[in-house]
Amino acid sequence: MHTDKKTLRRGLLVLSAASLLGLSSCTKDLDRFPTNGETPEKIFSDPAKTLQALAKVYGAYGLSGNGGDAREGNGADIAGIDEGSSDFLRQLFVLQELPTELAINAWGDQGLPDIHVHSWSASNPFVRGLYYRSLYQIKLASDFLRNTESRADDATIRAYRAEVRFLRAYQYWVLIDLYGNPPFVTEATATGKVYPQQISRAELFKYIESELKAIDADLLAPKAAGYGRADKAAAWALLSRLYLNAEVYTGTQRYADAAQYAERVISSGSYSLKSDYSHLFLADNNVNNPEVLLSINYDGQRSQNWGGMTYLINASTGGTAKAVTGVNMGVNGGWQGNRATTALLELFGTNTATDKRCLMKAAATSTISDVKNFDQGVYVYKFRNVTSAGANGSNGDHADTDFPLLRLAELYLNYAEAAVRGHADATKALQYLNLLRTRAYGNASGNYSALPDLKELLAERGRELYWEAQRRTDLIRFGLFTGNSYLWPWKGGAAGGASVDDYRKLYPIPADDIQANPENLKQNPNY
Question: What is the pTM assigned to this prediction?
Answer without folding.
Answer: 0.92
